[in-house]
Amino acid sequence: MFEIGYTTGTFDLVHSGHYELLKKCKSFCKLLIVGLVTDELGIKQKRRPAMNFQHRKTILENSKYVDYVVNFSGSTKQEDYRKLKFNVLFISDEYINSLEYTGFEEEFINVPVYYFPRSIGVSTSEIYKNMIKDVIMDTEIYTSGTGQDLIAYKYKNNSSTIVKTVNIADREFNNTKNNFGMDPNSLPRNWKMLNCLQGNYPNLAGVNPSREVEIFKILKGKKWYPVEEIITKTTNNAGVFYNDYQIRQNMNLLNEERKMGKICYWMLQDNKGKTFKQIFEKCDKGKIYKKILQIINEMRSLGVVHMDLHPDNIIIDDNEDVFIIDFGWCIHRSFEMTETEIQNYNTLLAMNFDLKHFRESLVTMKLESMVPELFLD
After folding, report:
1. What CA–CA distances, in Å, run from 257 to 58, 181, 232, 240, 242?
2. pTM of the model
């Protein structure tokens, strides 16, 4: 029986194989020290641990096989020996004949090394694979749009997170300035002609899709805006680089360019329930209409105008609380706009375009044959 034993490991998503290893180590020594891999080293070695260092440390400290836990950030076993003065070293059998453990310095040459095989049938990597498989199996397209789909990642308690990706093309990225505003002379805008029942309204500029990311900063924390976080992912794709004339003739080309974007934003939001369209026949429509009107007024007070508000962009939970999604076709007064866009923005505000577009969408979807009285001018 040795006095002090030492082993190292990440011990992420602790499972039975970890405890079998610790039990074996402890059977050879009176006191077992574990060098726990730090989060930073874990990222360098394989992947970011699912559990952070403090969580993993707490689990090990509460194991009956472990006496002390120390940080392990990549030091050599010789360096660890000088600090800890252990009498025996335990490592995985994958390191047999490794120079690190056979070429010890003189002071370390009498410390025995025990090589333990990995547990069969269980591993953290396998747990990761199964988790990913479960997520894929429980994933569905929540709704599809002209840009990106909204993906719902379901969990066993029926709650889920909605993910929407927003891709920024290379030239959009390079020409972005002033809080995601676009240089009006650098890239053609995304124009959307809205032909509503009561006549043609001015063209609406969706412009740089990163404006949806900017909307998050403005509306973050609003209970009716379910987006919780935006994760930025950079890519190495160069983009397709169609010329301006081609893009103006066919906006699908710009969409193709965005598929090979420079940056991709992942917008994470709670799945708050079903769309207004899905529950239309069963809900208290008068109550929901009032809440929608309150939200529209609050958005306006913040300078945000939702230009594509319809029953598929309104989510209702079990308590009939209302949540608004899909701000890709929105305008905010802080955005850099051309003079024509500013005029259109003011015109759309003056004519209550958001209200009109919403109530007319009800008729278009054949949900209401008459405009709700609440939304009359």
Report:
1. 48, 19, 18, 5, 8
2. 0.59
